[in-house]
């Protein structure tokens, strides 16, 4: 098995000192044993997931709102470089 492990390590571009190989080989065998156990699971009726939590993005509708303070509204409009009617143009964020 040591030769196989050395070959695997070389393919994965993982370099070990000679003294480390025996310990890592044992750990690697444990990982392979765990993967074999996972392969035995019956997942026939399990739907694939893209994320473990079933969440959806909640987005608000993009609506224009009335601005209460007229003086502040005018100051804001004056400070913006780009305007379109009563709307202020900002940089794209997506």
Describe this structure in words.
This protein is mainly alpha-helical and 94 residues long. The protein has a domain at 2-39. Helix content is 45%, strand content 4%. The protein has three helices and two strands, in the order H-H-H-E-E. It has helices spanning 2-11, 18-39, 70-79, and strands spanning 83-84, 87-88. It has a two-stranded antiparallel sheet. The mean pLDDT is 84.
End-to-end distance, in Å?
52 Å
Proportion of strand residues = under 5%
| Sequence of secondary-structure elements | HHHEE
Overall geometry comes to elongated
The main pleated sheet reads as: 2 strands, antiparallel
The multimeric state of the shown protein is: single chain
The share of residues in helices is 40-55%
DSSP strand count: 2
Mean pLDDT over the full residue set = 84
Counting DSSP H or I runs of 4 or more residues, the number of helices is 3
Computed structural class:
mainly alpha
Strands side by side in the biggest sheet: 1-2
Attribute tags:
single chain, 94 residues, two-stranded antiparallel ribbon, elongated
How are the SSEs ordered, and which strands pair?
Layout: H1 2-11, H2 18-39, H3 70-79, E1 83-84, E2 87-88
Antiparallel strand pairs: 1-2
In short:
The chain is mainly alpha-helical. 45% of the residues lie in helices and 4% in strands.
